[in-house]
Amino acid sequence: MSRQAIIRVKDLVARYGEDTILDNITFDVYEGEIFVILGGSGCGKSTLLKHLIGLIRPYSGRVTIDGDDISHCDDETFQKILRKIGVLYQSGALFGSMTLAENVALPIEEYTDLHKKAIETVVNMKLKLVDLDGYENHLPSEISGGMKKRAGLARAMALNPKILFFDEPSAGLDPITAIELDNLINHLNRSLGTTMVIVTHELESIYEVAHRVIMLDKRTKGIIAEGDPKYLRDRSQNAFVKHFFNREAEKETFSPKGL
Fold this sequence. Notes:
The structure is a single chain. The chain is α/β, with parallel strands linked by helices. The protein is 36% helix and 25% strand. The chain has helices at residues 45-52, 75-82, 100-111, 116-129, 145-156, 175-192, 203-209, 229-235, 239-245, and strands at residues 5-16, 19-30, 34-39, 60-65, 68-69, 85-88, 163-167, 195-199, 212-217, 222-227. The strands form two sheets. Strands 6-7-8-3-9-10 form a six-stranded mixed sheet, with helices on both faces. A four-stranded antiparallel sheet has the order 2-1-4-5, with helices on one face. The longest helix has 18 residues, at 175-192.
């Protein structure tokens, strides 16, 4: 069966001033998959994420979200695109002076005309999806780091987005809490069919959740590997890629050839 691409990146060039971070990268993300962007420090993972959610416009190339070009669209189209996506930031990015329920309600109040009772119902549903029912009136300071991540995820899902973006979701979590978050990501993907794009370097999480990965490289400024992470770990002919997936120090000169 052919798969439908919901995100298309074509010949993307990302620059900060005269410094090129990503040079002519091209890839697709398919509906319903968990797609992971990985690579070493400084390879452009966060820069790519910012381009995918429209925080940065590319120097050249295109980023298309569900058929709309986020790279060169007008404000009306951009607002339409934003309603199709949700973002879980690394810190959770919750407002500390607001309860969890109030945090989750924010995008619903901003983008819909639902009355107060309906908003409360939706908020309770979203918090229950992430196992936070009963914590509606808690402040972020009153819950654990893992719970903050799940609350941030509930807010990211508030408008039933087609695509969820995650920025280092396991960062700062202990191993057990990280596993629980991985399990939640898998459960939501299977039950809701939501496309998920995750930026991370946590190998345990990558092996647990990723359907497909791309690996960015600082030296080539591009994609040096793509596919199933376990296949790349066991079968890649690129020494740098194999060392990365096996947590080994690089033992020989890097070559982008022979993937």
